[in-house]
Fold:
Amino acid sequence: MSNTNYLINLCYDLQLKGKTPTVALIRSSASMPLPIPEVIKAIKHFKANPGQRPSPSMDESKEKQVTPQSLEQRVNQLEQQLLSIINEVTLLKSKVK
Structure:
C-alpha cells in the first residue's frame, strides 16, 4: 500500500476509535517514520473525501509478502558479512601485537 493510502487508512482507524486525526496522532500510530508533509496531505484528503477509504490492491499486498527463501538468502549474506568482519578484526588484532 502506498504511504498516502496507508495514512488515509490510519485516519479512518483513528476516527473509528473516536479520535480526530492529527499529525502527531498519526505519526505516533504509524508503524514507520513518515514525513510531515505526507501526513498533512493525507489528512487533507481524508477530510475532503469522507467515506472514500482506500483499500489495498492485489499488487500492493504481494509486495509485503516475504518468501522464506529470500529470508534464508538474507541470513546467509549477513553470516558471510559477519565472518568477513571477524576476519578483519582478527587481522587488525594481530597487527597491533
